[in-house]
Structures are given as structure tokens and as C-alpha cells.
């Protein structure tokens, strides 16, 4: 039997592409090259850039850079601040979703005041959800606010068993809450920190082996696997104050295929977690003739270097995986093949392109 398998193009709802202001870490062109090499054909870009994406002008500037650079399809998040809760509905329709950073993260974008978070949740219409960076006790807090305001809340990068238990209970009560987990929280724990050093520093931080096991044991309540691809350079990571974050676009699918091989995941669940659910939650348009060819029998060791991401390192380096992306097709054309990205900068489309048309 052939070990070649065809999967629908992956949608990664959580990536940091660093333009504007951080092109030395990543650009739309380099980050989407990494996406295609990882079988990802849609990326949703986070707003904690420099300056952050928080209004019409900054969204237009990010959209201009994305239009010129992106090699796969993309959406752009708007970021919540203490002052921008009245984002016009036309602008909301242009965005992939609203991102609220409730806990500390990379960059200054953060909303700590309860009235401001409530105002954002009350006024956000979508079509995308309110995506929140919430850790620990802030998870039940945002669940309560979803109940109170009716906002559709998507909890980013859930990393601990207790947080997932809260989300399970919210879903059982019928609340409009969804969530994602990252490959690094599924595969790495705080026990890997001595070896990883600053390359294991991210937010939320690596958790305990019991937390990691709880993510696997409760994968039925997880909606998406998303990378939180957060590229920083090697020099920055080795510097005096290493920024949090790890790249992940090129390793997510190989890791998930490894789990498939090990019987920890079914093919049906893999497709739901990386394609069907993310598309439904964020209302992403169909991508005709877009798929990924993988070799499910290819075994390889994750290398230190040689990646498409400008960060060019991986927290998974040294791990043995089974499953390799051979070819990625976007709209009927080969976009990536055997180590080479073919799709040029500018070939990606904005998932909210329809919202751009004047009505
Ligand atoms: O580790 C992280 N890195 N967590 C975040 O929330 C932000 C991200 C970044 O932008 O580097
Ligand atoms: Zn975050
Ligand atoms: Zn993030």
C-alpha cells in the first residue's frame, strides 16, 4: 500500500508574522513559505506587531504588506486596547477576529481592565470570534464573560488540564466557547526546559507532564490545533532577556502524523482539528483544489537548521518523527514541493477579501 496520503490544506488560526516592525524575525513572505512547507494553506496573523494592528489604518497597512508578501491565504486579527472597543462593524468584517491579550505576552498589546474586556465582548459582531490569550484563573473569567455578553470566545493555546476542564464544563452548558492547543504544549513539558533553555521559553509556559497528558486525554473538547508560530531570532533567544515564543509552522503536521502513526489520533480527528473546525469557527472561505500530499511512512529527525521560517530553529530539534510533507497544492497549482516553495509572494488571498468590496 502506498504511504502517500492526501489531506485538505491546513488552517492555522494562530501565527505571528511580525510585519510591520519585526521583519528580521519573519515576514509575510518567509512565514507563509514556512506555512506551505508545513502543509498549511491558510494562516491567521496576530496583531501584536510594531505598531500593533488596532484600527483601520494599521489594519490597512498590515493588509498592504500581506497582499504583497503572502504566499498562502491569510487573515488578519485586530487587537483590543483599552481605547478601541467601538471598532466599526465594517472593520470587524475585514478582520479574522478580535484578539484580546488578558495575560502578559510579547509586546505591549494588553487589556487588563474588566470593563474594557466586557465592552469589547459586547460590541464585537464578527464574523470571527473574540480570541483570548487567557491563562489560569483568567480562563474561567473569560468563560463567565462569554456567558454574560453572548460573545463567541475562542481560547488560544490552552496548556493545562484544569483550563481544559473549565472549557469542557462551559461546552457542556452550551456556552459559545471554543479552544485550541499548540503542538509545543502537546509534545513538550517543563522537564524539557533544562535542555531547551531560552528556546523553551514561551507564553503560556511549558506545563507539567500531567498537564500535557491531560491535553491528550481530553482532546475531544479541543477544537483546533494551532501553532502559535512565534518566531524570534537565535540571537534574541540567546540574549539577556529572551522573548517568549517558538516557531511551529513546519513541524505541526509531521508531529500530528507521528501521533496518527502511534494511534494517539485518528485521521478523521486530525482533519477536524487542522481543517474543518478552524474553518468553521473563523468562517473561512473554501479553498478549491487545495490539498497536501504527505508521506506517512517517511521517518526523519527534526533538524536544528534549514527551515523556511526566518527564525531557522525549532524547539523540536532532535525529535524523531514519522510523516513528511511532500507537496502542497493551492488552487490547483503546486505551491511547495520537496523542500522548495514555489508559490510567489503575493499569491495568497485575504480570507476576508469579500468584505473589502465596497457595498
Ligand atoms: O510565546 C508567545 N509568543 N506567546 C504569546 O502570547 C506571544 C508570542 C509572540 O508574539 O512572540
Ligand atoms: Zn498568546
Ligand atoms: Zn500567539
Report on the structure:
By secondary structure, the protein is α/β, with parallel strands linked by helices. It has a single domain (4-341), classed as Metal-dependent hydrolases (TIM Barrel, Alpha-Beta Barrel), CATH 3.20.20.140. It has 13 helices and 14 strands. It has helices at residues 28-37, 56-69, 89-94, 114-123, 138-149, 161-172, 183-187, 193-196, 209-217, 234-238, 252-261, 267-282, 353-356; strands at residues 4-8, 10-15, 40-45, 73-76, 78-79, 98-101, 130-133, 153-155, 177-181, 224-225, 291-301, 320-330, 333-337, 340-341. It has a six-stranded parallel β-sheet. A five-stranded antiparallel β-sheet has the order 1-11-12-13-14, covered by helices on one side. Strands 2-3-4 form a three-stranded parallel β-sheet. Helix 1 crosses helix 2. The longest helix is centred in the last third of the chain and has 16 residues, at 267-282. The chain starts with a strand and ends with a helix. The mean pLDDT is 97. The site of one zinc ion has 5 residues, from loops.
State the helical fraction.
25-40%
**Widest sheet, order of strands:** 5-6-7-8-9-10
The CATH architecture name reads Alpha-Beta Barrel
Separate helix tally? 13
Poorly predicted ranges (pLDDT <50, ≥5 residues)?
A: none
Q: What is the CATH class?
A: Alpha Beta
The whole-angstrom Rg is 19 Å
Query: How many structural domains?
Result: 1
Could you give a short account of the major beta sheet? 6 strands, parallel
Query: CATH homologous superfamily, by name?
Result: Metal-dependent hydrolases
Category by helix and strand content: alpha/beta
SSE string: EEHEHEEHEHEHEHEHHHEHHHEEEEH
Average pLDDT confidence is 97
CATH topology: TIM Barrel
What is the number of strand segments? 14
Oligomer: single chain
Associated small molecules = (4S)-2,6-dioxohexahydropyrimidine-4-carboxylic acid, zinc ion
What's the end-to-end separation, in Å?
A: 52 Å
